[in-house]
Amino acid sequence: MPFWVNTAVALISFGVSAATGIFLIPLLKKIHFGQTIYEKGPAWHKSKQGTPIMGGFMFIIGSAAAIAAGYALYRFRHADMAAVPDNSGLYRLLAGYGFALLNAGIGFIDDYIKAVKKQNLGLKAKQKMIMQFIFSCAFLYVLYLLGDHSTEITFPFFGNVDFGFFYYPIMVLYLIFLTNAVNLTDGIDGLCGSVTVISGLSFVMLCAAMGEWEYSIYSMALAGGCLGFLIWNLHPAKVFMGDTGSMFLGGSICAIGFALHEHLLLALIAIVYVLDALSVVVQVTYFKITKGKRLFKMSPVHHHFELCGFSEYKIVIMFSSVALIAGIAANLIYNIFR
Question: C-alpha distances in angstroms, 142 versus 91, 135, 147, 275?
Answer without folding.
Answer: 9, 10, 9, 29
